[in-house]
Structures are given as structure tokens and as C-alpha cells.
Amino acid sequence: MEGQDMDQPAEDVNSGDTPGDIVEDVQESVANDAVAGTNVSQNDISMGDAAGCPTELYNYCVKPVQVCGAWSELSKSITKGCKWSTDGSCILTSSDDNFLRLFNLPNCLFQLPQTLYDFTFQSSVLQCKESGLIYDYAWYPGMTSADPATCCFASTSAGNPIHLWDAYTGQLRCSYRPYNHLDEPVAAHSISFDASGEKLYCGFNKMIRVFDVASPGRSFDERPTNVKKMGQPGIISCFAFGPQGIYAAGSYCKTVAMYSESDGQLQFMLSGHQGGVTHLRFSPDGTRLYSGGRKDFEILCWDLRNLGKVLFCMKRTVTTHQRMYFDLS
After folding, report:
1. Which family does it belong to (predicted)?
2. Separation of alpha carbons 195 and 272, rounded Å
3. Cα distances (angstroms) measured from residue 193 to each of 17, 122, 238
4. Which of 115, 154, 181, 301 is the most buried (most CB within 10 A)?
């Protein structure tokens, strides 16, 4: 799934080559991260776990089927991105009219057998308005529709603190207020909950600030990423949380850095993107990290067991400076 975001300033693009092996046919390379689908007999990819247990096959040659859409309320604005809720029951979108919109999946998608769909036009069930340009937003990782207390998401926008919204009512639950060294309020460029949902990580220029989700306000932990020209420079643009207490942070200075969750110490720095890093995802088994850059025609895959070089590259089409999301299953 891909989305778009135009909230951050673009940077110059290098003409240098990206290290690593280019994979022209990525079907086999990404098989373990694909969603199991229809059983087919040709042009399929067989998937299985480490124990050799057989799973379903996925046919990459079959084009996706469009089953529903939402255009009426978005016809006069640009959709910058969409993100699935943790339980997969709804989608949260961001657009340049400074609205966050929540869409429920149509009931036909939950009915079996899923062979024929009536094309339906969806309307948002919830709208949250920010007063400034929305920079980033994130679902609470423990969200499940069966427990309303967990149904919430955070957002950051220009000139505003970080807001935590109720996904059932659309009401503002609380705010997290970052300040700089001059005691001036500053807006986060990127936000992400950690895997446990207890911490909220926020990206700034050469700085990561970490809030305790249970303690809204202006109390946070500061973690500089670049001191005396040492470390990761630039605006921290995205996060991804992996296994064993580590997380990855992308920068608009075209680098990806691995940090320790406990103390924020830099563990490893990766480079190879032609543009600023805009999106990161760990594989479900936690052994690989995928990264995408602004106006970068490759998604790079890194093996956490051997970070010295790019494991492989996947080609994509990116013709603008807009942020392009991707996701794994």
C-alpha cells in the first residue's frame, strides 16, 4: 500500500549510484513478506516459515481488484497518505485541507466467500481538523475495535503540539508539547509509537524527543542525534521499531540510523539512498529493514545480521518529491 505526503521541504537529489544488487524480478526476494492469497499453479511464489511449514501461494501476476473508494469529500483536496489501523478494521487518511479522516471497511469485505464485490463509495465516519499542515500521524499499536480505550491515533502539524485523538468520538484526548533549548514550542516533523505503545517518539532537526504516552504535557526525554558533527545529521523524518530493543530512524540527509530504545545510543548508520529517507519498515520476522527515499526509484532492503551492504533493491516509480509509503505483511 502506498500513500503520498507533501508536508516536508524537498532536498537536492544526488546522481550517485546506490550500492547493492538490483533485483529485476523481486517476486522471490519478497516472498516471505507477502500476504498469503489465492492458490494458483503458475507464476506463483511458495511461502513457508523457518520450520518448513507449508503456507498458501500468492500470485503476483494478478492485478488488484478495486472493491470500494472514497472521492466525494476528497475531490477538492490532495490525499497525502493512508494508514491501516492495527486491527485492520479501518483506514486513516491525511489530506492537504488539514483533515484526518477515518474510513471503515465495507461490510462486504468481511463476508465469505469473497468472490464478487459490489463497488461502493465510502464516506468518512470521523474527521479531525488540525489548524496547520499535517506533518505526520500514527495509530496506537495496541488498537483494537473491541476495546474503545485503545482506539486512538496521534498527529503532528505545523505550529501545534502533538495531539492524541479518540478514534471513536473524534475528540482530543490530550496533547504532548515539545520545547526547544530556548523554551520555545516546536512542532515535530515525524512521530511514531514504540511497539509497546508506552512511548511516543518524535523527530526534529538533529534531535529525537521521547514522551511517556501516559504522561501528556511537556515532560520528555531529549536524545540528540548529531553532536559536534558526529552522528546522524538532518531532520529525523521517520521511525520503525524492530526486535530486541532497537529502532531505526530515517533522516532527510539520506541516512538511516539504528538506535537503542533504552538509552538512545547510536548502534549503526546506513547510507545509500539518493534522496532523504521518508519511510521505514521492519520485516515481520525482524531480520530485515526496508527503506524508501524521496524521489528515490529504489526501496532498499538491509539484513540486520549483515549491515555492511544493501541486501537487495526493489525498483519502483517515484516521479515527484512526495512521500511514498509502503507496507509489509
Report:
1. Belongs to the TCAB1 family.
2. 27
3. 33, 28, 11
4. 154
Q: How far apart are the first and last CA of the chain?
A: 10
Residue 329 lies in a domain: no
* Domain range for 267: 4-324
Contact between residue 200 and residue 216 where contact means Cβ atoms under 8 Å apart: no
Return the DSSP state at 17.
P
Q: How far is CA 157 from the centre of its chain?
A: 16
Residue whose entry in the numeric block shows the C-alpha cell 503476483: 60
Specify if 121 maps to a domain: yes
Tens digits of residue pLDDT in 80-94? 999 999 998 999 999
CATH number assigned to the domain comprising residue 139:
2.130.10.10
**Number of domains comprising the chain:** 1
Q: Which three cell numbers stand for residue 11?
A: 532536498
∠ CA 163-242-27, rounded to 5°: 110
If you search the block for the grid coordinates 518529491, which residue do you land on?
321
pTM score of the predicted model: 0.80
User: Helix or strand or coil: residue 72?
Assistant: helix
Task: Give the Cα separation of 44 and 2 in Å (integer).
Answer: 23
Encode pLDDT of 44-102 as tens digits: 433 344 444 444 566 778 887 777 788 778 878 888 999 999 998 999 999 999 999 99
**Measured distance CA(28)–CA(90) in Å, rounded:** 30
C-beta of residue 253 within 8 angstroms of C-beta of residue 238: no
